[in-house]
């Protein structure tokens, strides 16, 4: 099995291997091999739906466009893959809203705690309109071309210590979070001790009690199998997270228009299918996780939101994002922090 360094080297060596100057040149050229990195497990619908899309791109281009997905952090952590994408070492990546905030602060704004009550206003905000435009413009300034957002769901807390029924239950708990300033701030405001651990290393960290628990969506909890080493799942629904499909801007701009159209069409279809598959998995997840032995509870979420208001969480992030961006968010969520 190739090492992570070998995979990254391979990705960088092939991402720009084929010129796309004309139809004639494409017909005469070797296959254009490009790479896509992803932190998501192979069984996650984000991975399975993208693999189907890449197969379709390969088929429709008669093998001329060959994009390989490397799931499960094979090319490194999310922050490492973001760096590789910006340098052009890889052509595409799937990267979470939460971790992308460390590079592009505004990218994290959909993950503000308890901002979206449901998917209807969320997709309205991210599939078009002023908030989406602001985020895409911010990503563009870092040389990134954004496609649609893959769903990774509303997040919940799973622990080996105790169920979370009230804010006091979080006091002092070491909770694994992605490298997200918003999530780190959220759990600190609630009295927990958030710790950043790479997703691929989280199972071992929970098994060895490096962390007392983690927070994620039900399908992600299933995909990572952390239910094997945890006992309690609390449906806190504290934040939403998704993943942008991103391209290296210069690599994308170098592609001919018909190739861009082909890739975009299949990426858009993959996102639409992924959201549907994810919604079914999420709806059925609690039943499956109960069957695997988890004790599941649903606490009063307004208690947690009130604690965040009192701790100044919303005031802090309104100041950081700025009144214009915050206003664009509240256009879909209603007033936050009151």
Description:
It is globular, with a radius of gyration of 20 Å. Helix 3 runs antiparallel to helix 12. With 338 residues, the chain is an alpha/beta fold. It has 15 helices and eleven strands. The protein folds into two domains: 4-152 and 241-283, D-Maltodextrin-Binding Protein, domain 2, CATH 3.40.190.170; 156-239 and 284-333, D-Maltodextrin-Binding Protein, domain 2 (3-Layer(aba) Sandwich). The protein has a six-stranded mixed sheet with strand order 7-6-8-5-9-11, sandwiched between helices. The protein has a five-stranded mixed sheet with strand order 2-1-3-10-4. It starts with a helix and ends in a 5-residue tail after the last helix. Strand 6 (174-177), helix 8 and strand 7 (193-196) form a beta-alpha-beta unit. The longest helix has 35 residues, at 257-291.
